[in-house]
Amino acid sequence: MNQLVRMSQIGDAEQIAEPSAELRVPFAKSGAFVCKFIIGEPNDAAICCGAPVADGKSWCAFHRRIVFEPTRPGRIR
Question: Which residue of 12, 13, 27, 72 is 20 to 30 Å from 6, comparing CA positions?
C-alpha cells in the first residue's frame, strides 16, 4: 500500500519533540520570545504553543518544521 510521506520526514537526522502542553498561553497574552503557533481554531480565544524561542523567530523548532516544507531539488516552479 502506498502512503503519503512528507519530504520533512525523509532523512531526519534528529527528531524534535513536541513542546509541553503546559507552556500554552492565550495568544493575546503571549509575549516576545515565545512560539506563536496557534493550537486549534484561530479565534478570539486562540491558544498558542508558548514554547520559548531564542532566535527571534515566530515559531519554535517543532512548529517551524510543520509550517515550512523544504524545497525539493529540481522542482520546476
Answer: 27
In the chain, count of helices (H) and strands (E)? Answer: 1, 3
52, 72 contact by CB (below 8 A): no
CA distances in angstroms from 56 to 26, 42, 53, 59, listed in the order given = 19, 22, 6, 9
Tell me which DSSP letter residue 7 carries. Answer: G
Which portions of the chain are predicted below pLDDT 70? 1-14, 74-77
pLDDT digits (tens, 9 = 90+) for 39-61: 988 888 899 999 999 878 899 99
Q: Round to the nearest angstrom and report the end-to-end CA distance of the chain.
A: 30
